Automatic annotation (TrEMBL):
The lineage of its organism: Eukaryota, Viridiplantae, Streptophyta, Embryophyta, Tracheophyta. InterPro entries: Ccp1-like, Haem_peroxidase, Haem_peroxidase_sf, Peroxidase_I. Keywords: Chloroplast, Oxidoreductase, Plastid, Thylakoid, Transit peptide. The keyword Nucleotide-binding does not apply. It comes from Tagetes erecta. It is found in: Plastid, Chloroplast thylakoid lumen. This is Thylakoid lumenal 29 kDa protein, chloroplastic.
């Protein structure tokens, strides 16, 4: 079987991927958020919350307090989930699902931008400077002085897609505008997911339904849980310094290795990120394979892409992107949450 570039299937197969409505995400989040379905026959509700739900919240809160107070573990190690925490998690989860739906629609209409979106996310992130703890995925690539640098040539259209998506997302956000730093990384995630789905469809002979079933059964959707949690980056207000990002299409393998080492990674991570290093993944891998430190990993991931599940490749790629996407960033886990209407318990009939 010939070598497979997972980007090579996009132009013909991505448009066949299932369309996601604006009310639900094509890529569901499966990282333990609590989903409470409110259904109390339409009666005895306050601001859409039924009495049964309120009683459950009271019961859960009391139980958690009892567990915490009776635990032999010191109190400062015990994290008690309260109603506000659960509400914020649900708000962020719902918002992120809507974002992914918007991005999926935009990417489906512009499959040729998948490769630039991946490089856009990488180049925004690898400005990170470990000694000074500056740079990183902070949205600095949005500035004209940075996007116009030689290493970012060809990425303007991808940035324009992000900017258009941001306008739509901000229009329905209840918790304030989304940061460029978050959106650029989420766009890369959506681009990867679309590509993995397209690959599954290709392996099923172009059958969309079977491809979706294959990806649902063997894909690594659950691996995205930690990536989704790193949601709440802040945008910088100035471009990052020049000279921190190689021109991947012109850089030698040693220069690529040196850059990855400088941000805390090695040959393995360089090999798995081959799709982010230029528009032609196989050409990039052929170049990387000339280096003995990188070649074994290139071969490993090429073999993995030929399998049904692509597990080794997909899991390592998601893990590496997750780490790169938060280099040097302090995540605000309360970002995009917003106050909810207060309940008037005097109107509640128990």
């Amino acid at each position: 079987m010939g070598l497979i570039s997972f980007l090579s299937t996009i132009p013909t197969l991505l448009p066949n991927a299932p369309f996601s409505s604006s009310k639900s995400s094509t890529y569901p989040i499966r990282h333990g958020t609590i989903n409470c379905k409110i259904d109390d026959g339409g009666s005895n509700e306050i601001n859409g919350v039924g009495r049964r739900d309120i009683l459950k919240c009271f019961g859960a809160a009391i139980s958690l307090e009892l567990v915490a107070s009776s635990s032999p573990i010191p109190s400062h190690f015990v994290e008690v989930a309260n109603a506000a925490d659960l509400i914020q998690r649900r708000q962020r989860s719902d918002f992120q699902s809507s974002i992914k739906s918007t991005l999926y629609t935009a990417i489906k209409a512009n499959p040729e931008l998948i490769s630039p979106l991946l490089t856009l996310a990488l180049n925004d992130a690898v400005t990170y400077d470990k000694p000074t703890k500056s740079g990183g995925p902070n949205g600095s690539i949005r500035f004209s002085s940075e996007i116009s640098r030689p290493e970012n040539q060809g990425l303007s259209a991808a940035l324009s897609l992000v900017e258009e998506a941001k306008k739509e997302i901000d229009s329905y956000s209840k918790g304030g505008p989304i940061s460029y730093s978050d959106l650029i990384q989420l766009a890369a995630q959506s681009a990867l997911k679309a590509t993995f789905l397209a690959s599954a469809i290709r392996k099923c002979g172009g059958n969309e339904e079977k491809g979706n079933l294959l990806y649902s059964a063997y894909g690594s959707s659950g691996q995205w849980g930690l990536f989704d949690r790193q949601f709440g980056r802040s945008d910088t207000q100035e471009p990052d310094p020049e000279g921190r990002v190689p021109d991947w299409t012109k850089a030698s393998v040693q220069e690529m290795k040196d850059k990855f080492i400088a941000i805390g990674f090695g040959p393995r991570q360089l090999a798995v990120m081959s799709a982010f290093l230029g528009p032609d993944q196989l050409a990039t891998e052929a170049k990387l394979a000339t280096d003995p430190d990188v070649s074994k990993w290139v071969e490993k991931y090429q073999r993995s892409r030929e399998t049904v599940s692509q597990t080794d490749y997909e899991v390592d790629l998601i893990t590496t992107l997750t780490k790169i996407s938060c280099l040097g960033q302090t995540i605000n886990y309360e970002a995009y949450s917003y106050p909810v209407p207060k309940l008037d318990f005097s109107k509640l009939k128990l």
